[in-house]
Design a protein that fits this description.
By secondary structure, this protein is α+β, with helices and mostly antiparallel strands. The chain folds into two domains: about 130 residues, D-amino Acid Aminotransferase, Chain A, domain 1, CATH 3.30.470; about 140 residues, D-amino Acid Aminotransferase, subunit A, domain 2 (D-amino Acid Aminotransferase, Chain A, domain 2), CATH 3.20.10. About 25% of the residues lie in helices and about 30% in strands. The chain is built from eight helices and 18 strands. The strands form two sheets. Strands 1, 2, 3, 4, 5, 6, 7, 8 and 18 form a nine-stranded antiparallel β-sheet that branches. Strands 9, 10, 11, 12, 13, 14, 15, 16 and 17 form a nine-stranded mixed β-sheet that branches. A hairpin with a 2-residue loop joins strand 16 and strand 17. The longest helix has 14 residues. It binds pyridoxal-5'-phosphate. The site of pyridoxal-5'-phosphate has 14 residues, from helix 6 and strand 15.
Length: about 325
């Protein structure tokens, strides 16, 4: 497959748009589209990994379900079923000849009205695939990242629906990561409205203390991350206790290990917070063990005992 370098993106040949596979350059929308003005979209980020049996999509069923959940939350009714969307994803990865790739699926409002109530506008659906390496930097998986606690809070539960992966919600995430980058960090961690730990701009947060793994609850305005669920399962497989609970900020300063999880970030160690090293200031042993399991399964080196991988050849 020949990838086109489109402004820093390793773009693929075709994009699935409203039922047809069209060339990358032809997958366009009008400037009067509702989504351009008000962020009226829901989306999913998914990864496919190269395995000895060909490329396979990770947690495909869960991503399709969360997209449909987001549609329900935001009162969108796409004319495609979950099965249609599943086929569209597999077909797009296959047609573009990908090995490892990132898949962005988006449902968005088009042109009809610029009333803030988006429900009269037509719905469009796209599946975009491209090559995307390590989201938080090539070195990050091994060496970890330096992060800060953001001065921006996550939205209150009655401000925006955190469980919906809605385009407009990501304005909050943009403020978190822009502040972090401007201050020389790779990422920011937002607190919830009560001042407890919530999550990164695009990742869930875990920390480890005395062999127990802690992660903030849904009530802390987090996205219910699919990788977060995978990590919880891998911990339980390994006999490691996971406590989902309200966590004060200072737990990060006394943690033995901390890491982010997400489809884009995969499992990224956090080596310092607010310039204070986490544990000895490098990737911890449990983080490394979880990475070993995670990347072992996604690469097909270890058995996929939880059936997380869907081979792309199933699209044929
Ligand atoms: C705000 C936010 N939190 C957490 C995550 C991690 O979720 P997942 O593991 O489903 O990719 C993401 C990425 O989608 C995100 O955008």
């Amino acid at each position: 497959m020949l990838f086109l370098e489109v402004r820093g993106m390793k773009a693929s040949g075709r994009i699935w748009l409203d039922g047809a596979l069209v060339p990358w350059d032809e997958a366009r929308i009008h400037v009067a589209s509702h989504v351009v003005h008000y962020g009226s979209s829901v989306f999913e980020g998914i990864r496919a990994y190269q395995t000895p049996g060909g490329p396979a999509v990770f947690c495909l069923g869960q991503h399709v379900r969360r997209l449909l959940d987001s549609c329900r939350i935001f009162r969108m009714t796409p004319s495609y079923s979950g099965d249609d969307l599943t086929r569209a994803i597999l077909e797009t990865v296959r047609v573009n000849g990908h090995g490892d790739c990132y898949i962005r699926r988006v449902v968005f409002r088009g042109v009809e009205s610029l009333s803030v109530d988006h429900r009269r506008c037509p719905l469009h659906v796209a599946v975009i695939t491209f090559e995307w390496g390590r989201y938080l930097g090539e070195e990050a998986i091994e060496h970890g990242v330096d992060v800060m606690i953001s001065s921006w809070r996550r939205v209150a539960p009655d401000t925006l629906p955190g469980m919906g992966k809605i385009g407009g919600n990501y304005v909050n995430s943009a403020f978190v990561i822009m502040e972090a980058v401007d201050n020389g960090y790779v990422e920011g961690i937002a607190l919830d409205v009560q001042g407890y730990l919530s999550e990164g701009s695009g990742e869930n947060l875990f920390l480890v203390r005395d062999g127990v793994v802690y992660t903030p609850p849904l009530a802390a305005s987090i996205l219910r991350g699919i990788t977060r669920g995978v990590i919880t399962t891998l911990c339980r497989d390994a006999g490691v206790e996971v406590r989902e609970m309200t966590i004060p900020r200072e737990m990060l300063y006394i943690a033995d290990e901390a890491f982010f999880t997400g489809t884009a970030a995969e499992i990224t160690p956090i080596r310092s917070v607010d310039r204070q090293p986490v544990g000895p200031g490098r990737r911890g042993p449990l983080t490394e063990q979880l990475q070993e399991r995670f990347f072992g399964i996604t690469s097909g080196r270890l058995p996929d005992t939880h059936c997380w991988l869907t081979p792309v050849r199933d699209a044929i």
